[in-house]
Structure formats: C-alpha cells, structure tokens
C-alpha cells in the first residue's frame, strides 16, 4: 500500500479506443490498488467513468471527471473537485499527449492550426494543471508531480510537434522541481518508448490504414529488450515508484521506460 491515505489526480486516466490498456488507465488502477483515492480525469468523460468503475470493482476509491485540458477554467474546476472530495492533493499524474491524431507532421508539412493544437494539449495543458495544483501542494508542504514525456524527446522522431512538446515537458519538470524543492514538492518525468497502447498503436492503425499486427510488428522490431513493446503497466509501475515515498529523495529526474530504445541513437 505505497500510496495509502494519499489523494491522486490522474489526468488522462481514460483512454482512446483500442485493444490494450493505456498508460493513464493502468496508472489510475495501480494507484488505487496501492491505497490512493483517485480522481480520474479525461476529455472523454465516459472513458474516465469506465476507469473509475474498474477501480470500484476492485474495492478502491475513485471519482471520474470530464476535463478539457486546453481550457484553464476546466482545469481549475477539476482541481477544486478533488479538494471538495478529499481536501488535499498528494500526487498529480500528467498523462496527456497527442501526435498523429492532432495533425502532427514533418516540419515542412505542419499547419499552423495543428501546431497550435498539439502545443495546447501536450504542453499548455500540463503547465496550467501544475499552475493550479502547485499552490495546494505548497500549502501542504508536500506533493509529487509525475508527468509523461516520451523517448521521442531524445530519439530521432520525424514529426515536429510531438518531439518539441515532449522535450519541453522535460524542461518544465526540471524548472518545477528546482523552484518547489523548498516546499517539499517533487517533480519527475517518465519517457515511455514504444508502447502497446491504444494511443500509440490503434491510432496509427486508423490513420495509416494498416493492420494492427503490421503496426505492432514494426514497432516490436525496434525494441532491443526482448524485441517487443512495453505496456501501460510498465509506465504505471514507474509512475507508482516516483509518486511514492520510496522516491522521496528523487526530483528533477527523467526516467526512460523504453526497453533500451534510446540506446539505438548513435
């Protein structure tokens, strides 16, 4: 029970349609299994509700909230809902990101509208969420913020918006960690590699018109460790460690969860 008596917000705790489990849903479930009260937030309220129902079925405590991560008022209402329910926020888990689904493209092909949209979802949303959660954590003089970047921040990645925003999430985390360390607030970032999740695989199936087996095989072949992608549970267990008191002396860290994919660079 590594999060016993703690309150966690999991932004992106639902998931897009697909055959497997996403990072956010797996993290919400694992946090609840480890004793946390979990506010599951997603721009798809029905999907957030599904996650909360799964937690309830296991005997955990959760509430679901629909949130538009591009709208600061929606974010503020989400934070207030958590305080109204449980009076504190011990863990903020930022699991938000789009690429192909947001119109991401190579730099010579990107449109201004797509660039602005992906920036708004992938970066601005996290910044605004931290803006409203950090004052709560400062008042408590404690808290853990775990954000999801991507190994694309370090690796060769062909689409400009995703790589740029995921690199920026690392910089955001470092700044938050430094500025809030005196308040007992830790901030760390996870860099997932090639994952077998609905956002990563099924979105490409729909966008590229290929079979799921074909997309999965191509991604598996690029992973050094056992030649297969990771799962949402791999990210969830890393998030649990960073959120828990086991990582009480870790802040400003960028943790790859990628099966050694970054070793392919160079």
Summed up:
The chain is of the alpha/beta class and 266 residues long. The protein has helices at residues 23-33, 45-57, 72-86, 112-140, 160-180, 198-208, 212-220, 232-243; strands spanning 7-11, 37-42, 61-66, 91-94, 143-148, 185-192, 254-257. The model has no long low-confidence stretch (mean pLDDT 95).
Describe this protein's structure.
With 266 residues, the chain is α/β, with parallel strands linked by helices. The chain is 45% helix and 15% strand. The protein contains eight helices and seven strands. Strands 3-2-1-4-5-6-7 form a seven-stranded parallel sheet, sandwiched between helices. The protein starts with 6 loop residues before the first strand and ends in a 9-residue tail after the last strand. The model has no long low-confidence stretch (mean pLDDT 95).
Question: Can you lay out the helices and strands and say which pair or pack?
Answer:
Layout: E1 7-11, H1 23-33, E2 37-42, H2 45-57, E3 61-66, H3 72-86, E4 91-94, H4 112-140, E5 143-148, H5 160-180, E6 185-192, H6 198-208, H7 212-220, H8 232-243, E7 254-257
Parallel strand pairs: 1-2, 1-4, 2-3, 4-5, 5-6, 6-7
Helix pairs in contact: 1-2, 1-8, 3-4, 4-5
> How far apart are the termini?
41 Å
Helix content: 40-55%
The number of helical runs is 8
What summary fits the major beta sheet?
7 strands, parallel
Strand order of the largest sheet: 3-2-1-4-5-6-7
Secondary structure tally: strands:
7
Estimate the strand proportion. Answer: 5-15%
Cα-atom Rg, whole angstroms? 17 Å
Shape category? globular
- Give the mean pLDDT: 95
Low-confidence stretches: none
């Amino acid at each position: 029970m590594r999060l016993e008596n703690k309150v966690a917000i999991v932004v992106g705790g639902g998931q897009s349609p697909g055959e497997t489990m996403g990072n956010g849903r797996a993290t919400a479930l694992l946090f609840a299994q480890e004793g946390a009260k979990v506010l599951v937030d997603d721009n798809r309220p029905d999907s957030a509700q599904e996650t909360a129902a799964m937690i309830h079925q296991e005997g955990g405590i959760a509430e679901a909230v629909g949130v538009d991560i591009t709208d600061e008022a929606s974010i503020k209402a989400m934070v207030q809902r958590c305080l109204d329910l449980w009076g504190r926020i011990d863990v903020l888990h930022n699991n938000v990101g789009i690429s192909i689904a947001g119109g991401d493209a190579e730099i010579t092909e990107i449109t201004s509208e797509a660039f602005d949209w992906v920036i708004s979802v992938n970066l601005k949303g996290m910044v605004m969420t931290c803006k409203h959660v950090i004052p709560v954590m400062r008042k408590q003089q404690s808290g853990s913020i775990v954000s999801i970047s991507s190994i694309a921040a370090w690796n060769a990645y062909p689409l400009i918006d995703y790589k740029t925003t995921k690199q920026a999430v690392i910089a955001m985390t470092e700044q938050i960690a430094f500025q809030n360390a005196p308040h007992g607030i830790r901030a760390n970032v996870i860099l997932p590699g090639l994952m077998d999740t609905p956002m990563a695989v099924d979105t490409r199936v729909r966008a590229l018109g290929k079979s799921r087996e074909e997309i999965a095989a191509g991604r598996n072949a690029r992973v050094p460790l056992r030649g297969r992608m990771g799962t949402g549970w791999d990210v969830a267990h890393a998030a649990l460690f960073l959120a828990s008191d086991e990582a009480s002396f870790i802040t400003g860290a960028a943790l790859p969860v990628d099966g050694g994919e970054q070793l392919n660079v160079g």
